[in-house]
Design goal:
The complex is a heterodimer. By secondary structure, chain A is α/β, with parallel strands linked by helices. Chain A is 50% helix and 11% strand. Chain B starts with a strand and ends in a 7-residue tail after the last helix. Chain B is an alpha/beta fold. Chain B has a four-stranded parallel β-sheet, sandwiched between helices. A four-stranded parallel β-sheet of chain B has the order 6-5-7-8, sandwiched between helices. The chains are: A alpha/beta, B alpha/beta. At the A-B interface, helix 2, helix 16, helix 19, helix 20 and helix 21 of A face helix 1, helix 2, helix 3, helix 4 and helix 8 of B. The complex binds iron/sulfur cluster. The site of iron/sulfur cluster has 14 residues of chain A, from helix 15.
């Protein structure tokens, strides 16, 4: 392998953040490819429907699920209301336990802090536990630019990394790949990153897992630095909590000498009692398990066990802006269980990549436009990437009313208004490209608010009924390309009423 | 008992027979029906697309028109949900006040009139699509099915993936045509696989999408609003 190739491989070819090669497409265009890819559709439908059924069964086992859910929402709301206090408590507890706390206002600052911390250890590679926050900030790409290789150790993240791909699901980042595709990726690419795949590798799950195990074991044993995220941070004891299924996370939290954890500020929970609620809500909602296989709690360096050096990077990156929005802030309750993705009919057809961020599906549609703003065409299209069917709200273990937030964000896109952007109040203009729609909405409202005009419009519609085509030109094509239009009736309802009942009432 | 019919703008324009069916049905059950002519549209499309400012005048109009009625009945799950769930969020006290008095047709029948057998006759096989807003916002549960199972002559067929969205979503169908069509195709396939002669729902917007997709596929399954089934009697069917 040549040096140039090495450098190229270390840098992911596509990225959610940082410097995208091209301007990302808006959701509707980005979703088209997925709807036309039969293999992808099959993979997604199979995977989401399987987990959907299992989750429903796991939740139905608990008679008090509704109350647990309400408790989860209430704890998160209370924590968010007093976030400043809990964060200071957390900082004090982590520091007292021998850890170091760093505050990062945005992605660039967080990446700079982690890069500096890794450099100070002298290491040029790190092992990683699956982490949404580090994907959100594009940490792997930032480290690569600094000449530091980051090895993903979660099985699905490994598949994504080896395949020069992007994750498409919160819990199952390679949900869009089937076994055969994974076998090919391992066979063709493992050697570029370390130990090659065993000769004659098949596509049985046990074989694939064994190949990953052998490949990753070398990484764990050699690594000096681990980078992780966290599911929760307990403020009262400064404890980091990581839930996972494979045990790789536990390796990362115990074998390396230095542990650097990047954690969103909304991940704090006040006490262990509060944690108990989430340890019931999360596994059942995400993997449909009563308890997940590995729950690691880590309360700072100890003499003869685990990392000697612990750094906690607390990440804002748009979270305090989100917190200032009375309707939108409920998105910060999210515990990243991915239940909303698994029931979402739009996610099932569009796939995760169309959402253009580390957070796909319904939660991505409400979180990304708040964290990043709605200035780009992609981010402005995300609140519209939903039929408002409400399936996500129904399953969300912390009762985030996702449809309510979607409509709220649509108003931000369509009408603009005053919002907090990077800590200061700013007036956001209505998004570009909505002028024709705005005019149509206004005209419709104007007509509907004037009975005479409305009656005339109805008469005009039915009066020209023979002229109405079954297929429409222009923007109407979006409808009539795949659907017939209903025939226009002879007389509107109100005309029938007038004719048969008179103008009374 | 006297009620006001809120027919909705979609039904007024494109599905007047649904409105007529509601009148027939309610009058058969001994309910006097008013149709205040100053009514127009609940503003759902404006609200759900993000045009809150354009929604408010329509909500105020609705509140004005229906202020004097104890019951407002509408043959649309999504319009009922718009009024009940979203009007209280608009900061319009009059609109918020009229919200709880607005009923979707099937819940009015089962919860207020307390009937499940409305004396209907419909000699066809039918499958039922519970629309998302009816199912999850209004919480209609099995009310419509209870009404359908009491219809003489009707055979109800199970619909695979019944609680999954059909892909209409108002302006979603225009803004995200590829995903909307993919969802509609799956729904239409399930409807066809049910073996029913008709697919019914408590909302003509969803039926416009499902029916339009079925028609384009050349399917003989026809969309029919539940009100038309419930209004139908032996005299109507030759
Ligand atoms: S929004 Fe709710 S359902 Fe979706 S990932 Fe977050 S916690 Fe889970």
């Amino acid at each position: 392998m040549t040096g140039a190739r090495e450098g190229e491989r270390a840098r992911a070819p596509r990225t959610f953040l940082g410097m995208p090669r091209t301007r990302p497409a808006a959701f509707p265009q980005a979703a088209v490819a997925a709807t036309e890819d039969a293999t992808l559709r099959g993979n997604l439908t199979h995977a989401t429907h399987t987990i959907r059924g299992k989750r429903a069964a796991a939740v139905a086992e608990l008679p008090d699920w509704d109350r647990l859910r309400a408790a989860g929402a209430a704890i998160k709301d209370d924590t968010l209301r007093h976030l400043d206090r809990y964060l200071e408590q957390l900082e004090a507890a982590v520091t007292a336990a021998g850890g170091h706390v760093h505050w990062a206002v945005d992605a660039a600052e967080a990446n700079a802090i982690v890069t500096r911390l890794v450099r100070e250890t002298g290491a040029d590679e790190v092992v990683k536990v699956k982490s949404m926050a580090t994907q959100e900030i594009g940490l792997n790409e930032a480290l690569a630019e600094a000449g530091i290789r980051a090895y993903e150790t979660d099985l699905a993240e490994l598949i994504v990394q080896l395949g020069d791909d992007l994750p498409s699901h919160i819990l199952v980042p390679a949900i869009h790949k089937n076994r055969g595709e994974i076998r090919d990726i391992f066979r063709d690419r493992m050697a570029d990153w370390g130990r090659p795949a065993p000769a004659g590798l098949g596509d049985r799950p046990a074989e694939l897992a064994e190949a990953a195990r052998l490949h990753l074991r070398e990484k764990f044993l050699g690594a000096k630095v681990a980078v992780s995220g966290a599911n929760f941070m307990v403020a009262e004891s400064g404890t980091m909590v990581v839930l996972e299924s494979e045990g790789n996370g536990r390796m990362c939290l115990t074998l390396p000498e230095t542990l650097i954890s990047v954690v969103g500020i909304e991940k704090v929970v006040p006490t262990w009692r509060d944690l108990e609620v989430f340890l019931q809500l999360l596994p059942r909602s995400s993997t449909a398990e009563r308890m997940n296989p590995y729950t690691s709690t880590w309360s700072g360096p100890a003499e003869d066990d685990g990392p000697r050096d612990f750094h906690l990077v607390l990440l804002d990156n748009g979270r305090t802006d989100t917190l200032s929005d009375q309707v939108g802030r409920q998105a910060l309750r999210c515990i990243r269980c991915s239940a909303c993705l698994n029931v979402c009919p739009v996610y099932e057809r569009a796939g995760g990549h169309a959402y253009g961020s580390a957070y796909p599906g319904p939660i991505g549609a409400i979180l990304t436009p708040q964290l990043r703003g709605t200035a780009s065409a992609l981010d402005a299209s995300l609140p519209y990437a939903s039929t408002l069917c409400g399936a996500c709200y129904e399953v969300c273990p912390v009762a985030i009313d996702i449809p309510e937030v979607l409509v709220h964000l649509r108003t931000r896109v369509a009408e603009g208004g005053t919002y907090t952007v990077r800590g200061t109040k700013a007036v956001i203009k209505p998004a570009k490209g909505h002028a024709a729609e705005r005019a149509a909405m206004r005209a419709a409202r104007w007509t509907m608010d004037r009975p005479r005009a409305y009656g005339a419009a109805l008469r005009a519609t039915t009066g020209t009924r023979r002229l109405h085509p079954r297929r429409l030109p222009g923007p109407g094509k979006a409808w009539s390309a795949t659907r017939d239009l209903p025939p226009v009736p002879q007389e509107p309802f109100r005309a029938w009423w007038r004719r048969t009942r008179g103008a009374g009432s | 008992m006297r009620v006001a019919l809120f027919v909705t703008c979609v039904n007024d324009t494109l599905y007047p027979h649904t409105g007529r069916a509601v009148v027939t049905l309610l009058e058969r059950l001994g309910v006097a029906v008013d149709f205040p002519l100053a009514q127009s549209c609940c503003g759902q499309v404006q609200f759900n697309t993000g045009y809150r400012r354009e929604t408010r005048p329509l909500a105020r109009r609705y509140a004005d028109v229906f202020a004097g009625y104890e019951y407002v009945v509408t043959p649309s799950g999504s319009c009922a949900a718009m009024v009940r769930d979203n009007y209280p969020r608009l900061g319009e006290p009059a609109a918020a006040a009229v919200a709880p008095r607005t009923y979707e047709l099937t819940e009015f029948l089962t919860d207020v009139l307390k009937v499940t057998d409305v004396g209907a006759y419909y000699p066809y096989t039918v499958t039922y699509h519970p629309t998302c807003h009816g199912l999850r916002m209004l919480g209609l549960g099995d009310r419509p099915r209870q009404l359908l199972t009491h219809v003489k002559g009707l055979t109800l067929r199970e619909l695979e993936g019944a609680d999954e969205c059909c892909g209409f979503g108002g302006t979603f169908a225009l803004k995200n045509p590829a995903v909307s069509a993919a969802m509609g195709a799956d729904k239409a396939r399930h409807v066809e696989e049910s073996g029913a002669q008709a697919v019914c729902a408590a909302d003509n917007s969803c039926l416009m999408h499902i029916g339009g997709t079925l028609a384009r596929r050349g399917s003989p399954v026809r969309p029919v609003h539940i009100a038309e089934i419930l209004a139908s009697t032996e005299g109507d069917v030759r």
